[in-house]
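Appendix B, Record 12. Input sequence as logged:
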Amino acid sequence: MRRLFLLIEAAAIADLLVSFARLPPRVASHFMAGGAANAFMPRTDYLLLMLTVTVLVPTLIAGLSALVGGLPPQLIHLPHKAYWLAPERRDATRAELSRRGLQFGSLLALFLLYTHELVIAAHTVQPPRLPETAMLAGLVVFIALSVAWTLGLVLHFSRRR
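Logged structural output:
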């Protein structure tokens, strides 16, 4: 899972840097209902924001979830905590939390990259207009996968093996 996460993040960085030239000097950065742009920022600021959000936030999620298993037990909130943090299962629990953090970090990075591609598409017309149906579809998929991820996490740790 770690390799996939790193591959997604590398692809995100590459896509953001390569697509930089396709953006206008003033990038529409916020859109109203209906897709009309109502806020703009310089292209360089947009790139820095997207690099930060698309790379740093998913990396923090993945990294922090890997560290959770190393915290003192009183700081960890899991169902059946004594079972999952028992010495014979602690390493497996830590690995599972890390794997799930990498999963969610990957999901978030892909959604943010998808959103970036929609911002690029918004600039193919004047004035810029976000493809609302595509944005809504992407958001629905992201939310559905986030709910599935959350349920999977809760169900995994709710039962003892």
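The two ends are 23 Å apart (CA to CA).
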